[in-house]
Amino acid sequence: MKPDTDKTTRFIDEGRIAETLAAARRSSPARVREVIAKARQLEGLDADEVAVLMEISDSALLEEMFAAARFVKDEIYGNRLVIFAPLYVANLCKNECSYCAFRAGNTELKRRTLTPDEIAADVKVLIDQGHKRLLLVSGEEYPKEGFNYILKAIDTIYATKSGRGEIRRVNVNIAPLTVDQFKQLKEAGIGTYQLFQETYHRETYAKVHIAGAKKNFDWRVNVMDRAMEAGIDDVGIGVLFGLYDWKFEMLAMQQHIHHLEEKFGVGPHTISVPRIEPAVGSSLAERPPHAVSDDDFKKIVAILRLAVPYTGIIMSTRENADTRRATFQLGVSQISAGSRCNPGGYAELGDGHDAEQFQLGDHRSLDEVVRDVASLGYTPSFCTACYRLGRTGADFMDLAKPGLIKEHCSPNALSSCMEYLMGYASSETRQAGEKLVNHELKTMPGSIGKTANELVSRVRKNERDVFV
Ligand code: SAM
Ligand code: SF4
Question: Among 41, 71, 104, 304, which residue has the least CB neighbours within 10 Å?
Answer without folding.
Answer: 41
